[in-house]
Amino acid sequence: MSQHNRSLALGIGFGAAAGAAWGFVFLAPELARHFSPLQLSAGRYLSYGLVALILIAPRWRAVAPRLGRAEWWALLRLSLLGNIFYYVLLASAVQLGGMAMTSLVIGFLPVAVTLIGSRGHGAVPLRQLALTLGLGVGGIVCVAWQALGMPSEASVADRLTGFLCALGALIAWTAYAVSNSRWLARLDHVSSHDWSLLTGLVTGGLALLLAIPAFSGSSTSDHTTAQWGAFIGVVAGMAVVASVLGNAFWNHASRLLPMTMIGQMILFETLFALLYGFLWEARWPTALEALAMVLVSASVLAGISAHQPRQPLPEH
């Protein structure tokens, strides 16, 4: 296997692993529905910050001198965009509009990131991505049709608010994915794992500020011991699985793949979010949902094919 193909295979593997880890965050608001999106976000990132602090502490003296003011400002912006803003909006969207609708809107991430990254280094021309983008949009349309056709107890106002929150989450994470990939490309003196932990450390500091409005007031005293136990388990699980492992996998993928292909890897998050939703609801996917998953998978495979080096035709 050539070095190019080996890098592609490893990058795809890391991208799929990140999607599997991140899909869990769509289910978390349902597992801890008694808590607000602000509380879920504060709890998740306080846990993430604590885990990141423990993991990076032994190497702090070696890592800290490599960071200048520009890197710390970048970590602050990335933490706000890709963690705090994104998850408050995503959790609000899930609780107001449901997992299917939220997965649908976030499913546009590959299209957005791929279009923005189409001018980056290693990107292939957009005309070569027409098939993969078309298949991805086809899968999203199937999920949309299914979501809009399903009966819902939520009011029109709640569903509209949920949709707008999901759209805001889409914008925040698109900006994060593009900016983070560009920073990783220029950081040859900081490992992707350390960059992920540093992001967690900064996010944890922001979560300390977020916790003040999130947990102040009388609403926190209304929860039972069992509800608090479930909340702690959920936020700790998100911190370890989604934030630490998921972000580490993603940063590895970002260094191995061009940005247009990174966009395709985000499709795995949508796929796993849907699978977790089916398990939570204890049902099989409908025909439209199954077709959507097939189209999404075909889109990823088409994206991989578009990035394979073209072999010259043999001369006769």
Quick structural gist:
With 316 residues, this protein is mostly helical. It is built from 14 helices and no strands. 78% of the residues lie in helices and 0% in strands.
Q: What structural category do the secondary elements indicate?
A: mainly alpha
Report the count of strand segments. Answer: 0
- Cα end-to-end separation: 27 Å
Q: What's the average pLDDT?
A: 81
How many domains is the backbone divided into? 1
Tally of helical runs? 14
> What's the Cα radius of gyration?
20 Å
Secondary-structure element series: HHHHHHHHHHHHHH
> Which blocks of ≥5 consecutive residues have pLDDT under 50?
311-316
Quote the beta fraction: under 5%
Query: What does the largest sheet look like?
Result: none
